[in-house]
TrEMBL record, chain A:
<dbReference type="InterPro" id="IPR048994">
    <property type="entry name" value="PH-GRAM_MTMR6-9"/>
</dbReference>
<dbReference type="GO" id="GO:0046856">
    <property type="term" value="P:phosphatidylinositol dephosphorylation"/>
</dbReference>
<dbReference type="Pfam" id="PF21098">
    <property type="entry name" value="PH-GRAM_MTMR6-like"/>
</dbReference>
<dbReference type="GO" id="GO:0005737">
    <property type="term" value="C:cytoplasm"/>
</dbReference>
<protein>
    <submittedName>
        <fullName>Myotubularin-related protein 9-like isoform X2</fullName>
    </submittedName>
</protein>
<dbReference type="GO" id="GO:0019903">
    <property type="term" value="F:protein phosphatase binding"/>
</dbReference>
<dbReference type="InterPro" id="IPR011993">
    <property type="entry name" value="PH-like_dom_sf"/>
</dbReference>
<dbReference type="InterPro" id="IPR010569">
    <property type="entry name" value="Myotubularin-like_Pase_dom"/>
</dbReference>
<dbReference type="InterPro" id="IPR030564">
    <property type="entry name" value="Myotubularin"/>
</dbReference>
TrEMBL record, chain B:
<dbReference type="InterPro" id="IPR010569">
    <property type="entry name" value="Myotubularin-like_Pase_dom"/>
</dbReference>
<dbReference type="GO" id="GO:0005737">
    <property type="term" value="C:cytoplasm"/>
</dbReference>
<comment type="similarity">
    <text>Belongs to the protein-tyrosine phosphatase family. Non-receptor class myotubularin subfamily.</text>
</comment>
<feature type="binding site">
    <location>
        <begin position="273"/>
        <end position="274"/>
    </location>
    <ligand>
        <name>substrate</name>
    </ligand>
</feature>
<feature type="binding site">
    <location>
        <begin position="336"/>
        <end position="342"/>
    </location>
    <ligand>
        <name>substrate</name>
    </ligand>
</feature>
<dbReference type="GO" id="GO:0046856">
    <property type="term" value="P:phosphatidylinositol dephosphorylation"/>
</dbReference>
<feature type="coiled-coil region">
    <location>
        <begin position="516"/>
        <end position="543"/>
    </location>
</feature>
<dbReference type="GO" id="GO:0106018">
    <property type="term" value="F:phosphatidylinositol-3,5-bisphosphate phosphatase activity"/>
</dbReference>
<feature type="domain" description="Myotubularin phosphatase">
    <location>
        <begin position="124"/>
        <end position="499"/>
    </location>
</feature>
Length: 622, 621
């Protein structure tokens, strides 16, 4: 097969920012790798036999034709089988004009719907870019027809808005229906990550990169009070926990099993972070199932007693409940509840209500709506910014994390965080507290480990929470942008401590994109158990190995990073918090001037490194 | 000194402005002839210039003492608690006297002595030369000339002596027109665009009433449009809201009637008057000063203050002006009522968009001298330098600085100066430490003999210019020759570093600018080191060939050798940014932050609901 060169501009992934490099699918190997297996099944009917005259590609020797051949030629079926994409594709192709927002020039060419992608191949006069969009990243689709042409507006999960002007009413309707059907497929194992085979990465490379075992090694170096338990080996105790969890050494596996029965979803208290400087720990769990009978569980009480015993003598314990006192009490009327004071000596409860679920999703939707209206007056904009409450949520999340961090660092207390299920705001608080306290979690590797350990392995249900982004018309069921809120809070920390995070905004944007739609398997499914069932680890690539390719990694770095051993205490005053323009206005505001300024910062660093190198090489000579 | 009764009070508490639990520092308060000084127990000094004080309030006596709240024009707010009411009363009275002077001669500038000799001081005053600036723009030329009509301030007291007008406008026309303009401020040149041959002119409103006309004024406008060889029509921008302009007609003032003037295009741009701006800022500051401010109160307060809406209006007007010149090649005449507030804002900001020179440190000084100082923006009244009419005070110049700040945010590479420069200028329009901003017009300044008795601010800023450099500035980029800012609402942000410049806890704890500046510094040092080393190598090689080798060579690596000394100092330098970073992060003591107060929950008892429940639990157990 001929070598195909695609320039990276105009590709479907993050084509306008530094995330470009993270944008998978803009290099030739990506395109080739995504085609052979994934699309064979899904080749549009009749396209392979289209007559040469109507074929959009000028010559048989054209590289593009070679590419298409690889899409269309019959080959062995993927072993997953199951879904026949073919049935969902009404039409294969159409002549379209693609409008990509106010900044990018429109593209004209032939649009092709495949099993996982929209492909746009520019006409003969066009440049050589092939434009790709992962169908999974389409959040909502709107079609309009007038005369003999139609318009499809695609709103993507990364908040981009695309407009396709299509010739032919039938073609418009068919393409719209195909996109609708294909973008809403729910089956995990037929999703694109199972077909994505980028060159330069090997399957299974990074999947052992960040397991809890790795973190345990660090804890074991710092203290002897904790052990790694494999009690959840078969996910029978807690379906949303990983196989191995870190628990107090004094508590045996049988006791853990009984604890698990006392906690919602089996999420018994486990170690989240050991703060070596003060010898205290951060734990997380779900609510205890006290219920109206005020049930108690001796093993659960013993576990928390053991936690305090393992810390500095006399260390107090605080249970940070992410619900209001009222809501916690309400939960006690049915099955849930809170730890009774008498049953847990040494532990005291605090309530810091954080918004989750539907109100949080609505806040996200309203903010994105506000950002989309460029004509809005000053007053309209400010009042919508206020009404959507997003920054209020950022403030609450950050200040609660600061509270937890303060407790560990200054009060030298052990902290247990939980809400109801303990897989949303609980993780938000524990992960942010670690970034505030732990210098290692502010490094590139450390942050990736944190996301893997505290979000993915800790069972944040990504599949449900990130099923739709802010544009979906569907009533939100389980969607909630808790992970986005986490990224926003980290971004705020980065703004206030621009030298203390090793990674830049690019990494946060990439994580946001990939959490919602990704060619990698990392954010698939809602728990380790599901990932095991789907064989995600063996059959998809890990985002981490993608991000850690030297070329990509360099782009994601913060050029100004200086390791900072201290805790970073952010200001949470409204005057100090800012709207994350890089995300919410990413496709709307013209990015050039600030972009160019950043490039200048890079240049300066590069020239500094150069002079330093010069210095070190010229020294020995003297 | 006769106002000072108590010069020193001990055991004074300085309260944290935002703390809801009255966290404080204890120290000693000193009152000097020019400053109020507070030295806390960590020997940290807080200096407050008397002229910066906008408001002193003595609040009701509390158990811990007598509260004294001082609001400053540079947005510092301090809240002292003086243990004895008597002392508080003395200080309060002294400050009332000291902060409001009745005479110019009592202002700080007349006693400020930076120990410079007279010739240096005069040199300082000559640093900015407006004649030179008009020459730089390209006037006088075949269409524009210097008029001597106002040489003796006979036509207009609030204009400078030197004015540029169209060559074809004769003196009778000028005199006639000035009689038809409010305060005699007839149309004159503010900025000449050399390439487009188009001009920005400024004036005050015409005394047109409902029907009055003035042929000379009509002629003068025609002369301005004729002075532009490319485009025959000109814009007349009335920067007021239409309603205000119409209301002025009843008072015999008003705006130009398009039918009477040939070739003009009339446009209202709707910037509110000084009273609206003053109360808008007041509202903004009230919102900001709220203790325990919530996000939603902040944004609804920001909205209802209207402050950013006003900033956007000024910016939009300047963009309209710049576009008229760049796109349509048309000259523009700008006025408001008296032509010294909104007109100064729009003309100066428009010039700044058009001409990269005004975005340099020196050029920005020139711009302020030209459009603000020389054309008679009433600095003393607007800034309340003297005890005068509080209704004349208005943050018009502050708004201009804020517009410039917004531009620096949108175009980080287009400005030679940084935010600190703007803040420093803002500090000194109120400080009365230098003569530049005293008085309300050039005539008044000459009468005050400011050049003989006071110092000019600009040379002091230039001496310090290292502090004000923007490291990202790229002077040569053609991209930034004319700025085309985007005024979509979300580009306007609250300027925290201005309105909270003294509330350090609200600021980022590490500064990107500082680190880049340090890095630049280091880089220069390193490059110098390389050069030194290279010349050393050359010397060594030469000596080697000369045959005298080992001793010299050995000497060159001896610890005392200059080479190693420089590299030693290089090492200290590399540490510098790290130290710097640490220093700033230490500022991020959690105790400085307001969530500290949440943290007090740790020591509180559990909420009521809980203890109740706990009782129930015990009963069932």
């Amino acid at each position: 097969m001929d070598e195909i060169e695609f320039s990276s501009t105009g590709s479907g992934w993050g084509s306008r920012s530094e995330v470009l490099a993270v944008g998978w699918g803009n290099s030739c190997e990506t395109v080739r790798s995504l085609l052979p297996r994934g699309l064979l099944n899904s080749c549009p009917a009749g396209v392979s036999s289209c007559p040469a005259s109507s074929c959009p590609f000028p010559s048989a020797r054209s590289p593009r034709l070679t590419l298409l051949e690889s899409v269309l030629l019959p080959g062995p079926r993927p072993t997953t089988g199951g879904m026949e994409f073919l049935e969902l594709i009404r039409t294969g192709r159409a002549q379209v004009k693609l409008l990509r927002g106010p900044e990018a020039p429109p593209l004209r060419g032939t649009l092709c719907v495949t099993g996982h992608h929209l492909l746009l191949s520019p006409g003969p006069q066009g440049t050589s870019d092939l434009w790709l969009l992962l169908l999974r990243s389409v959040d909502s689709i709107e079609k309009r027809v007038s005369g003999d042409s139609g318009t499809i507006t695609l709103r993507c999960k990364d908040l981009r808005v695309l407009q396709l002007d299509i010739e032919g009413v039938e073609a418009t309707l068919d393409i719209a229906r195909s996109i609708e059907a294909l973008s809403s497929l729910e089956s995990v194992i037929t999703s694109f990550p199972f077909f994505y085979r980028p060159r330069g990465l090997r399957l299974g490379d990074a999947w052992h990169f960040h397991p809890p075992e790795r973190y345990y090694k660090r804890v074991a170096r710092e203290t002897n009070a904790w052990r790694l338990s494999e009690v959840n080996e078969d996910f029978s105790l807690c379906p949303s926990y990983p196989r191995a969890v870190i628990v107090p050494r004094a508590v045996d596996d049988d006791a853990l099993a009984r604890c698990a029965r006392f906690r919602q979803g089996g999420r018994f208290p486990v170690l989240s972070y050991h703060h070596a400087p003060s010898g205290t720990v951060l734990l997380r769990s779900s609510q205890p199932l006290t219920g109206p009978q005020k049930r108690r569980c001796a093993e659960d009480e013993e576990l928390l007693r053991a936690v305090l015993a393992g810390a500095r003598p006399g260390a107090p314990g605080f249970i940070l409940d992410t619900r209001s006192a009222q809501a916690a009490k309400q939960a006690g009327v049915t099955v849930g509840g809170t730890e009774a004071k008498a049953a847990y000596p040494g532990w005291k409860r605090l309530h810091r209500p954080l918004e989750k679920g539907r109100p949080l999703q609505e806040s996200f939707v309203r903010l994105v709506e506000a950002c989309g209206d460029l004509e809005k007056s000053m007053d309209g904009w400010l009042s919508q910014l206020e009404a959507c409450c997003w920054l209020a949520h950022v403030k609450e999340a950050l200040s609660t994390a600061c509270l937890a961090a303060w407790g560990m660092e200054r009060e030298e207390a052990c902290i247990l965080v939980h809400g109801a299920e303990g897989m949303d705001n609980t993780l938000l608080v524990t992960s942010l507290a670690q970034i505030i306290l732990d210098p290692l979690s502010r490094t590139m590797t450390g942050f990736q480990e944190l996301v893997e350990r505290e979000w993915i392995q800790a069972g944040h249900p990504f599949q449900l929470r990130c099923a739709h982004s802010a544009f979906s018309h569907a009533q939100p069921k389980h969607e909630a942008p808790t992970f986005l809120l986490f990224l926003d809070c980290v971004w705020q920390l980065g703004r206030q401590f621009p030298l203390s995070l090793e990674f830049g905004e690019g990494l946060l944007l990439a994580l946001f994109e990939h959490a919602y739609a990704s060619p990698f398997g990392t954010f698939l499914c809602s728990s380790e158990k599901e990932r095991c069932l789907c064989e995600v680890r063996t059959r998809t690539h890990s985002l981490w190995s993608g991000l850690n390719q030297p070329k990509v990694r360099r782009k994601l770095r913060n050029p100004l990073y200086i390791p900072n051993p201290l805790a970073i205490w952010p200001s949470v005053e409204p005057q100090s918090l800012q709207l994350w323009q890089g995300l919410f206005l990413r496709w709307i505001r013209p990015p050039e001037p600030s972009q160019v300024a950043w490039e200048k910062v890079w240049q300066r660093l590069a020239s500094k490194e150069k002079t330093e190198d010069c210095e070190s090489t010229s020294k020995p000579q003297s | 000194m006769e106002h000072i009764r108590t010069t020193k009070v001990e055991q004074v508490k300085l309260l944290d402005r935002f703390s809801t639990n009255n966290k404080s520092l204890t120290g000693t308060l000193y009152l000097t002839a020019t400053h109020l000084l507070f030295i806390d127990s960590h020997q940290k000094e807080t200096w407050i210039l008397h002229h910066h004080i906008a408001l002193v309030e003595k609040l009701a006596l509390t158990t811990s003492g007598c509260p004294l709240v001082i609001q400053c024009k540079n947005f510092r707010i301090v809240h002292f608690i003086v243990p004895r009411e008597r002392d508080c009363h003395d200080i309060y009275n002294s400050l009332l006297q000291l902060s409001k002077q009745a005479k110019y001669e009592d202002l700080y500038a007349f006693s400020y002595n930076p120990k410079q000799n007279d010739s240096k001081r005069l040199q300082g005053w000559e640093l900015i030369d407006l004649a030179e600036e008009y020459k730089r723009m390209g006037v006088p030329n075949s269409n524009w000339q210097l008029s001597d009509a106002n040489r003796e301030y006979k036509i207009c007291e609030t204009y400078p002596r030197e004015l540029y007008v169209p060559r074809i406008a004769s003196k009778p026309i000028i005199v006639g027109s000035s009689k038809f303009r409010s305060k005699g401020r007839f149309p004159v040149l503010s900025y000449y665009h050399h390439n487009k041959e188009a001009a920005i002119c400024r004036c005050s409103q015409p005394l047109s009433g409902f029907s009055a006309r003035c042929l000379e004024d009509e002629h003068l406008l025609q002369a301005i449009s004729k002075a532009n060889p490319v485009n025959r029509y000109m814009y007349v921008m009335d920067t007021r809201p239409k309603l205000n302009a119409m209301a002025n007609r009843a008072a015999g003032k008003g705006y130009e009637n398009e039918d009477n003037y040939s070739n003009i295009r009339f446009q209202f741009v709707g910037i509110e008057n000084i009273h609206v701006m003053r109360s808008s800022l007041q509202k903004l500051l009230e919102v900001n000063g709220t203790k325990g401010l919530s996000v939603s109160d902040f944004y609804s307060g920001l909205e209802s203050s209207g402050w950013l809406r006003h900033i956007k209006a000024v910016m939009d007007a300047a963009i309209f002006l710049a576009k008229a010149i760049m796109v349509e090649n048309a000259s523009v005449l700008v006025h408001c009522s008296d032509g010294w507030d909104r007109t100064s804002q729009v003309c100066s900001l428009g010039s700044l968009l058009l001409d990269p020179y005004y975005r340099t440190i020196k050029g920005f000084m020139v711009l302020i001298e030209k459009d603000w100082i020389s054309f008679g923006h009433k600095f003393s009244e607007r800034c309340g330098h003297l005890d005068g009419d509080p209704k004349e005070v208005s943050p018009v110049f502050t708004q201009f600085l804020e517009c410039v700040w917004h531009l620096t945010e949108q175009f980080p590479q287009a400005f030679e100066f940084n935010e600190e420069f703007l803040l420093q200028i803002h500090e000194h329009i109120h400080s009365c430490q230098f003569g530049n901003f005293l008085g309300n017009c050039q005539k008044e300044r000459e009468e005050l003999k400011l050049k003989e008795k006071t110092y000019s601010l600009w040379p002091f800023l230039l001496d310090d210019q290292k502090k004000y450099f923007n490291p990202l500035y790229s002077s040569k980029s053609p991209k930034f020759s004319v700025l085309e800012p985007n005024t979509v609402s979300f580009n306007f942000k609250f300027w925290r570093n201005m309105y909270h410049q003294f509330d350090r806890t609200l600021h980022p704890r590490q500064s990107v600018f500082n680190i880049i500046m340090d890095m630049d510094e280091q880089n220069k040092q390193l490059e110098k080191d390389i050069k030194d080393l290279e010349s050393k190598i050359k010397q060594c090689k030469k000596k080697q060939t000369d045959g005298i080798l080992t001793k010299e060579l050995l000497h060159s690596v001896h610890p005392e050798s200059p080479t190693l000394k420089t590299s030693l100092c290089f090492k200290e330098q590399t540490l510098l940014p790290v130290n710097h970073a640490l220093r700033t992060i230490e500022g991020s003591n959690p105790a400085d932050n307001r969530y500290r107060e949440y943290a007090e929950e740790f020591s509180k008892s559990e909420p009521g609901v809980v203890s109740l429940e706990y009782d129930v639990a015990r009963m069932t157990c």
